């Protein structure tokens, strides 16, 4: 089955919705990036298999694209994978639905040029679309992953994003169709070396899977962990779960954690100036990202921390942080997950990570672009809320102009009819009530446009 047929079989709506690879998106995480040393990568040992895994994992979700093109730059992907391996990074995480369905293929081409034992590859059963819930369709996705990756076994295989849609959705994707039993048999046969799951959403599913650890014997679990989500994930969104709880439950059972979203989709490098100054006062030469990566890598139960590194400077900066890792002390951890996190919680931002899982909108709205524009004005404390503010008129005008420049008018929030398609697909990792938030922004826009004061 070629890629075109595969995507068609997957259902183009699901494939497009999960086109999370955004190679043209630039997350500014570095200041002056130096050359990382070789031979100094920090490794963690998987207690289940003895795998020696680099603390930095390569998330193959935001691969580089050729200039002014939708085509992925395989030469650059090869170059960055080579550089990563040369500096000790050995864990590569992908999925059938990343990068418009091309991530596994691009990853396989890059890794095939290296000895099989020099890397660990992780991929997922991303059977989100109901068309893929049958045993046959899910098994076909599993086998297609091996074909695209050009391997005869997968080191780390995940049930992708369990929790979204609750227990019913989980049962339909993995239990009722016999897929979890099938994957456990594949592990016994050695074609899967480690079996785990990635979690977002309903904590009932997370608790169920850990309560049945004696039955399923999870080798690892992928969770979202960063210094904002450690204590405030549930407070930001009551449908999310604090990372401190997730990590603690894994530690009780000795299950290693793979960490995703250490930068919260870039939100932890797009900080207000007063927060930046506090970080720079402590470590003037270090990037903002290095604080978040050190935080995510410090807990002893963390096996690896994933980062989607589109650009070489991102890769170099993260290698500098982890070659070797300097763990945070207790005071530094408190500084981040209490003092800095509390300041960030005071901002009424929308917890969007720009993953684009909500896209495409059937009415053409660019959902993440609208949320990011709104958040930027909140973070910069320039949102025109108070008509009595001396800067109100200037900020009002600049807000409206900047929105039109950032998002075409026909893709702005006032075109939302609250059809709930973005909710029905159940793919938002942050469980944002998207139509409600769009409506809130739309109402404010209408007020600003009508205000002629």
Explain what this protein looks like in three dimensions.
With 453 residues, the protein is α/β, with parallel strands linked by helices. The chain is 44% helix and 11% strand. The chain has 19 helices and 10 strands. It has an 8-stranded parallel beta barrel with strand order 3-4-5-6-7-8-9-10, surrounded by 6 helices. A hairpin with a 6-residue loop joins strand 1 and strand 2 (52-54). 47% of the residues are buried. The model is unreliable at 1-20 and 22-26 (pLDDT under 50).
State the gist of this model.
44% of the residues lie in helices and 11% in strands.
Task: Set down the secondary structure blueprint.
Blueprint: H1 3-10, H2 12-17, E1 43-45, E2 52-54, E3 56-59, H3 74-86, E4 91-93, H4 103-112, E5 120-125, H5 135-149, E6 154-162, H6 166-175, H7 179-188, E7 192-199, H8 203-211, H9 213-216, E8 220-224, H10 229-236, H11 243-253, E9 257-260, H12 273-282, H13 288-297, E10 302-307, H14 312-322, H15 330-345, H16 367-379, H17 392-406, H18 421-424, H19 434-450
Parallel strand pairs: 3-4, 3-10, 4-5, 5-6, 6-7, 7-8, 8-9, 9-10
Antiparallel strand pairs: 1-2
């Amino acid at each position: 089955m070629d890629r075109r047929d595969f995507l068609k079989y997957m259902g183009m709506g699901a494939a497009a919705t999960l086109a999370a690879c955004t190679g043209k998106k630039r997350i500014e995480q570095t200041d002056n990036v130096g050359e990382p040393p070789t031979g100094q990568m920090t490794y963690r040992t998987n207690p289940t298999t003895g795998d020696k895994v680099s603390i930095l994992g390569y998330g193959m979700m935001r691969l580089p694209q050729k200039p002014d093109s939708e085509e992925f730059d395989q030469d650059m992907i090869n170059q960055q994978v080579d550089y990563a391996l040369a500096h000790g990074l050995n864990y590569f995480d992908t999925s059938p639905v990343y990068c418009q369905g091309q991530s596994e293929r691009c990853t396989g081409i890059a890794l095939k040029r290296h000895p099989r034992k020099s890397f660990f590859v992780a991929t997922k059963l991303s059977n989100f679309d109901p068309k893929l819930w049958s045993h046959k369709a899910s098994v076909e996705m599993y086998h297609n992953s091996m074909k695209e990756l050009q391997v005869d076994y997968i080191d780390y295989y995940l049930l992708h994003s369990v929790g979204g849609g609750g227990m019913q959705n989980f049962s339909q994707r993995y239990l009722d169709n016999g897929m979890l039993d099938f994957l456990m048999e594949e592990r016994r046969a050695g074609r899967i070396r480690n079996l785990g799951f990635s979690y977002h959403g309903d904590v009932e599913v997370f608790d169920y899977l850990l309560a049945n650890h004696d039955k399923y014997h999870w080798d690892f679990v992928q969770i979202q962990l960063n210094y904002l989500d450690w204590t405030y994930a549930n407070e930001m969104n009551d449908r999310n779960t604090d990372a401190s709880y997730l990590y603690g439950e894994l530690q009780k059972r000795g299950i290693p954690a793979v960490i995703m979203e250490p930068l919260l989709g870039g939100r932890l490098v797009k900080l207000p100036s007063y927060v930046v100054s506090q970080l720079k006062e402590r470590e003037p030469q270090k990037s903002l990202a290095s604080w978040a990566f050190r935080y995510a890598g410090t807990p002893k139960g963390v096996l690896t921390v994933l980062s989607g590194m589109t650009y070489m400077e991102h890769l170099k900066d993260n290698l500098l942080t982890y070659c070797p890792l300097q763990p945070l002390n207790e005071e530094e951890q408190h500084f981040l997950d209490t003092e800095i996190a509390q300041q960030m919680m005071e901002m009424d931002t929308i917890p969007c990570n720009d993953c684009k899982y909500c896209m495409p909108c059937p009415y053409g709205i660019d959902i993440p672009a609208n949320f990011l524009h709104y958040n930027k004005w909140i973070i910069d404390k320039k949102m025109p809320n108070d008509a009595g503010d001396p800067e109100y008129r200037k900020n009002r005008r600049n807000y409206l102009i900047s929105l039109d420049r950032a998002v075409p008018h026909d893709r702005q929030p006032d075109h939302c009819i609250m059809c709930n398609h973005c909710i029905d697909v159940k793919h938002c990792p942050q469980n944002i009530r998207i139509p409600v938030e769009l409506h809130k922004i739309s109402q404010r826009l209408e007020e600003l446009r009508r205000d002629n004061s």
